[in-house]
Amino acid sequence: MTTPAAQIVDDAAYAQAVEDVVAAAAAYYTDGASPLDDDAYDRLVRGIAAWEAAHPDQVLPHSPTGKVAGGAVEGDVPHTVPMLSLDNVFSPEQFTAWTASLARRIGHEVERFSVEAKLDGLAVAARYTEGRLTRLITRGDGIAGEDVSHALGTLEGLPEKLEQPLTVEVRGEVLMTTAQFEHANEVRTAHGGQPFANPRGASAGTLRAKDRAYTVPMTFFGYGLLPLPDTDAELTERLDGLAHSELMALAARLGVHTTGATAVPTVTASTAEEVLERVREIAGLRAELPFGIDGIVVKADLAADQRAAGSGSRAPRWAIAYKLPVLPQIQS
Ligand code: IVH
Fold first, then answer.
1. Does residue 146 share a domain with residue 28?
2. Closest Cα to atom 22, ligand 1: which residue?
3. Is 299 assigned a catalytic role?
């Protein structure tokens, strides 16, 4: 016998139902315990499907419909909050047009921007339970990623223990510095392998490789800090209210490596012109950096501005990647 579908009356109820089902699927597939029993889960999924059939243009990207196990088994580990991508701009004109459209959307100029290097690596989420690093997950399709916890211990900048016993997720980029890339290729060729063509490919291959006869180090750069479902309410509220620049300062205090420790630290700026000045500075420093960057990420710094802007299906509306031209490959 099938139970009736849950009645979903408006888009807020729909968004809540999607969130509940994704969280329940995530909980079930991570530790086998779901806050919803099978019937309630099925009712909700069928309610979501019915609402989507009537509102096909409003289907949320992380909706569980049509996904095996609510998306929970796609790539192994569900993300608690989708890992989104970024929209791009390529010129000062496109950038100022973006700031203007963002101001229109939130009803006022963005209070403050955060401007940081766009690291050319792979996005990962690192989960800490009471300050201990427990799991490392790739971005995957943004909804669920691959468990690459076997790489823990090979990532410089991602401490095994935080300076405070917090339950949090640190998101960031894994890459190889120029020196790490050269070392990785020496080790790889010494083991009879073909050298990697570039640091990005080398990090991707290395991160996913299991049971290799050797390990080579990579570097982690944090660019996000968020609560997990098990984070206590007080810390969740605190993190949700912090500006991006404050979250990055906290990440650094916890012992996580960020661009703060490099020649291109994250800065804040009040106007589009100030942002563009920083874009030019970072672009000028790019060739000398010991790691690859492929642009500059500009984010609305304040949590309130980010919330007002919201996110689209692919990317947040409060952040943009200012892309730099692709550099010619140095042939070795
Ligand atoms: S923020 C919700 N900050 O760029 C905001 N991403 O092209 C999304 N990336 O998937 C991420 N450096 O892997 C952010 N400083 C930075 C970044 C950064 C590199 C990567 C990230 C993202 C991709 C989008």
1. no
2. 85
3. no
The total number of structural domains in the chain stands at 2
Specify which residues 154 forms β-bridges with: none
| Residue 54 domain flag | yes
pTM above 0.85, yes or no: no
Same domain, 21 and 102: no
Distance 251 CA to ligand 1 centre (A): 16
Of 43, 71, 99, at which residue does a domain stop? 71
Q: Which of 49, 71, 93 is where one domain is finished?
A: 71
Q: At what angle do helices 11-31 and 38-54 cross, to 10 degrees?
A: 140
Selection from 229, 303, 265, 294 nearest residue 88 by Cα: 294
Both 158 and 260 in one domain: the answer is: yes
DSSP string for 250-299: HHHHTT---GGGSSS--EEESSHHHHHHHHHHHHHHGGG-SS-EEEEEEE
Average pLDDT over every residue of 287-302: 97
* 1 in any annotated domain: no
Residue type, 164: Q
CA angle 309, 313, 314 (to 5 degrees): 95
Ligand 1, CB within 6 Å, residue ranges: 84-86, 116, 118-119, 123, 173, 223, 297, 316, 319, 321
pLDDT, tens digit (0-9, with 9 covering 90-100), for 252-281: 999 999 999 999 999 999 999 999 999 999
Nearest CA to ligand 1 atom 13: 123
**Domain housing 50:** 11-71
Q: Which of 67, 118, 161, 210 is catalytic?
A: 118
**300 CA from centroid of ligand 1 (Å):** 14
